[in-house]
């Protein structure tokens, strides 16, 4: 089971994990985190090969086999590694957890449950095993059993946030109390504070919700949901919205993903009921834009910014719309302001950079994009934006160098593919071939093998 990490934390966590395993080779949790980060970055093959070398150096170490299993990119190799770990140490709970995670991925639910229970009997502190076991019960529709698993998990690991979040989702009538407990037990987990604030808003506990959201944003400044919910609280406090309107707005935003027409009907009604609330105009502006009504979207977003001129959400939305409409100068001012307030939002930074390209020229825009890329070293978007600008200038060598520097930091598959193309464009065929071979090893996708074979054949001619 590979944990998912917040995007803005990946680069920092990667450095921390590498430093930890360097300081203490036996720090299993840091090894697990390092493997998970590499998997998140699409570098599973790199992780697998590194831990293959490690286990070859210590073939009688059950923990080394467990870590190799976690890093393996195929179910077969993972199962073989976890099985070897169990053979060497039948009481290694992590290895049983690994086997269970493979079973779960392969749809072997009953065997996975048995193995998760075995892992927890050996080591009740395995939060991933509790989460996996609970997920199996949820998938089977046995929410009662899932709640029991969560309660057992809380008893075993009171500080693990997952169980509190799961109970709140499965038992909404208990959510407020459970999340209050979770916030005390796991005060550094922003998701708990966000979920708690949502329940406090429903209960009309606006001051408490405001404090919870401020805490969530201190812990995770990049959370767009926490920022939006805090804006909701402020609008309710100002009398521009009420709890019923907040619920309707949340429903309309959800509808917008799958039923934009229904969302539009809901938002039209909200605009009539809450004409002083910038959030309803912002939401309708987004919906209109997605439906292709750009004139209507601009009207709504200009109304929103008149109501809330300093809102980074509104500034960003209107700035991006104006940029797309060729009104780059006004868009640049808005995007710069939004990005200054939300430096953790790479999409705002990229948009601001492209606005500077349009208004001040490529050199100025590339400086902005380079700064954004440095702030978000594992995000491919600012890199690809720089490559696009350099390519349009005819600077193929510059585009290649930007990509070379980026993949030296992290080998994102999309960047590797762009690097291969850029290398071939400037005659660096060996580098292009190496990148395609690496892509195939990383992803297992046959198209990359075919591309590499075609390039080899071309080079032989």
- Strand tally: 0
Beta-strand content estimate? under 5%
Mean pLDDT: 93
Give the CA-CA distance, first to last residue.
46 Å
* Backbone structural class: mainly alpha
Helical residues, percent: over 70%
Low-confidence stretches: 1-8
Shape: flat
What is the count of helical runs? 27
**Main sheet record:** none
Order of helices and strands: HHHHHHHHHHHHHHHHHHHHHHHHHHH
Describe this structure in words.
This protein is mostly helical. It is built from 27 helices and no strands. Helix 11 packs antiparallel against helix 12, helix 12 packs antiparallel against helix 13 (206-219) and helix 23 packs antiparallel against helix 24. The two termini are 46 Å apart.
Keywords summarizing the entry:
27 helices, single chain, 461 residues, mainly alpha
What's the arrangement of secondary structure elements?
Blueprint: H1 10-23, H2 28-40, H3 44-57, H4 62-71, H5 75-88, H6 93-105, H7 109-122, H8 127-139, H9 143-156, H10 161-170, H11 175-185, H12 190-202, H13 206-219, H14 224-237, H15 243-258, H16 260-273, H17 278-290, H18 294-307, H19 312-324, H20 328-341, H21 346-360, H22 362-375, H23 380-392, H24 396-409, H25 413-425, H26 429-443, H27 446-460
Helix pairs in contact: 1-2, 2-3, 2-4, 3-4, 4-5, 5-6, 6-7, 6-8, 7-8, 8-9, 9-10, 10-11, 11-12, 12-13, 12-14, 13-14, 15-16, 15-17, 16-17, 17-18, 17-19, 18-19, 19-20, 19-21, 20-21, 21-22, 21-23, 22-23, 23-24, 24-25, 25-26, 26-27
Short description, anyone?
The chain is an all-alpha fold.
